[in-house]
Amino acid sequence: MTESMTLRLSMIVLALLIGSIFFAGKPQVSSAQNEGFQSYQLLVFCENSSLAAATFWYEMPPGGGTVGRPLMGLKTVCAGKKCGGGPVTLAAALAQLPPRVSTAMQSKVDAYQEKEGKQGALGACLGEDKKPEVPCEKSAPWFDGASPSPRCKERQSPQIRNDKQGIVFMSICGRDVFRYNTLLMGPMDPLLIEAYKAALREHVQNQIGTTVCCDRLREAARAGSSCDPRLDLDCDGEPNSSDFSDSDDPRFPDFSTFTVAPGTPVGNINPHPPWFRPTDKGFMPDPDLCECKWQVMSAIRTCSPDGRRPHVYQMRWQCPTTRNEKFTRKEAPATSPCGPDASGHLDRSQPMENVLWQDNLSLTDSLWTTLLR
User: Fold this and answer.
1) What backbone torsions phi and psi does residue 298 show, to the nearest 5 degrees?
2) Could you tell me which of 151, 147, 138, 107 has the C-alpha nearest to residue 280?
3) How many CA atoms lie within 13 A of 359 on its CB side?
4) What backbone torsions phi and psi does residue 123 show, to the nearest 5 degrees?
5) Mean pLDDT, the chain cut into blocks of 10 residues (373 residues total)
C-alpha cells in the first residue's frame, strides 16, 4: 500500500514537472506584442487624395516590445474624405490601432484642432460634425442679379422668340428652358403673340432678374451635379418641362431664387411696394453664403409716418442649413407712393412667394387689358 501510494505521488510530481517545463518554453502573449510596431502614423486627407492635410505620429517607448522580439516597422492609418477606399471617420481610423496608441492619437488630434483653430474644417473632414440633412431647395447661384458675384465672368439676358406656328420659346445661356403654344389662347394673332412675349419678359425679370451668370450655370450643368440646370433651372425639384404657373392659360414659367420659411404667418409677409423689385441689388443675401436657397422669415413694409421720413421695406432671411440670419432693407422718399396697406390686400390662397410680388403684376395686367379688349 505504501509503495503504491509512493508510486502514484511520484507519477503526479513527474507530470507536473514535465508540464511546467513545456509551458515555460512557450512565450507568453503580452499587450506589447499586440502593438507590434515601433511607429504609428495617422494621415488625414481632406480635399486632395495625394496631399495630407495633417499628419500625426506616435512612437512606442523603448523596451515596449516582447523580450527577444523588438518592435519594428511603421503602421499607417488614414482618415478623412479622400482616403483610398472612400471617406473614413477618425473613430474608424483609430479603431485600427492598439488602445494606448489610439488614445494618444486622439489627444494629438484634439490638441492640433485647438491650437490651429481648425475645429470646423478638420472636424468636417474627419466626419465628426455631421448634421442631419435639412430638406431644402438647393441654391441656384447663377441667379445672382440681386447680389452680383465677382466670380461671374459672362452674363446674358434671357432670350424670347417665337416660330411661325405661334410657339414662344425662352432660352437662357443658349438653352431653351420654357415654351408655350399661344394657340391655346385663341387663333393665330401676331398682336396676341407680342403681348404674351412682353408679359413673359416682365414676368421672368421679376422672378430672376435681367441677366443670368452663364459660366456658373454651365459649371453646374454636368452629370452628378446636386442640381443640373439643364433639367431643373431653379433647383426646386420640378423639371423645367413642367415648372410653370398653376394658373390657366396663358402660362408662365415658375422660377424662384428664394423660398419662404415653413410656418411663416401670412401677416409677416407684406407685398412689396411699387418702388421696389425683387431683382434690385441688395434685395437678398449672397447665394454663395448658403448651400440652399435663402428663406424669407418676414417682409415688412412701413410707410412714412410723417411725410418726411422715408418709406421702408425690410426683409429677414434665414439659411435653412446653418440657421444664419441676414437682414436687407430698401428705402424710398416719402413723396413716392408707398402702396396699399397689407391688411385686406393679401390673397391667402396664393403661395407666399406670390403674395410678395402680387403688386408687381400691374404692368402685365395692363398689357393684357389693352391688347385683349
Assistant:
1) -160, 150
2) 147
3) 20
4) -65, -40
5) 50 45 38 65 86 88 57 85 82 86 87 66 65 73 80 92 95 93 92 94 88 91 80 90 80 90 88 77 85 92 92 93 90 85 38 43 42 41
Identify the CA nearest to 172 among candidates 213, 144, 227, 228. Answer: 213
Q: Read off the C-alpha cell for 262.
A: 415653413
Alpha-carbon span 293 to 287, nearest angstrom: 7
Q: What's the pLDDT at 210?
A: 87
DSSP 297: E
148 by Cβ neighbours in 10 Å (0-12 / 13-18 / 19+) ranks as middle
User: What ranges in 25-61 are assigned the alpha helix state H?
Assistant: 31-34
Q: What are the E-state strand segments in 92-162? A: 155-156, 159-162
Grid cell 517607448 in the structure block, residue = 61
Which of 368, 158, 339 is closest to 247 using CA atoms? 368
